[in-house]
Each structure stands twice: as structure tokens, then as C-alpha cells.
Design brief:
Blueprint (H helix, E strand, L loop, with lengths): L12 H16 L13 E7 L3 E8 L2 E3 L5 E3 L6 H19 L3 E5 L9 H20 L4 E4 L1 H8 L7 H5 L9 H13 L5
Helix pairs in contact: 2-3
Length: 190
Amino acid sequence: MSGVTTSGNGVGPAYAWRESCRVALSVVLPIPLNSSHGEMSRSLGVWAKKQEVYLAVADGGVLVDVDPQRIEAPSIMEANERLGGFLTSFRHALHELSPDEVRILQPEQTYQASYSEFAPKVALETAVRLVCDEDDIPVEVLHRTTARSRLGFGRSGSLDSHIEGVASVGKYWNAGRKYAAVAALAGEGG
């Protein structure tokens, strides 16, 4: 992401602004922020495919239209360079989006793919987890059944049929970003 500036500690301007607001609010509010008393967190949902990940942000339980919404692993590079480029791009995105938590939605249990399709997906998910670990941002690998339960979706019907009721926000919705949105919205509190 070009144009992203960071302070000496590697934190982007969006993160610094959110933290200053968090400190100001902690003086005004009688309850600690991020407590079980109800502060809605900023969640980043992730859905990985073979050559890219789709990102969706829920802030206070509401999807927001922020960029980046997709990060591609540059296909013109060799495999090792591609992974390094992706790590850098995701690290910049994570600092810019400043989530409190990240959730990666798992595929259907009946997901079938060849190794050449599945291995890059798992590699990108692992890269996401590593970058989050570096920044001490909790990551949940979210089972679809858990997501459906937290969102109040019924057991019957496909996940896609339930997603139709969620208003699309931003680009790449049908390319896979809708699954990232499910992950972002499916916080512990539902």
C-alpha cells in the first residue's frame, strides 16, 4: 500500500487516531473499554482464495466500506517472493485498518480442491496469522457452524442463502468478500 505513513514504532495514523480516541473515551466512560459491558470492537474478517485474500471490517457490529478490501499475492513473482510481498502488503493493511481482532472463516467441511488450489489458500491464511501474531492481534479461525450460530442464521439452507440478507458493502462481494464479512460480523457476542 503506497502512501501509508507510519510513526517510528510502525503504527499507522489510523491506529494512532483510534488509540487517542480510546484514551479520551476512557476518561469519560465509567466502564473499561473492551470489557464485557459492551464496547463493540473493530473486527477484520478474512476469506482466502488461491491468489488473494478478501477483507471486511465490522466496526461496532456494522460493516464499513474501507480499503483495502482485497490483497493479491503478486503472480509475476516467484513463490517465495510472492509470499514476502503478500506479508508486506497485509502488514500495511493491518496497520491501516487497526482491528482489535481478526477472524478467518473456514471453508465448508465438504470443501474439495486439488493440492495446487488448496495449498496456496492455506499458505495465505497462515501468513495472515503470522502477521497478526507479530502485532499481538488475536486471530480466530472460525468454523462456519459457529459463524452461523453467532449470526442467528438457521441450520437449514446454505450459508450463501443466509448471506443474501446481509447488505453488501464495498467491492468484490460475490468474488468472496461476503465470506470475509460473515467472519467480521460473527464476533463472540454474536
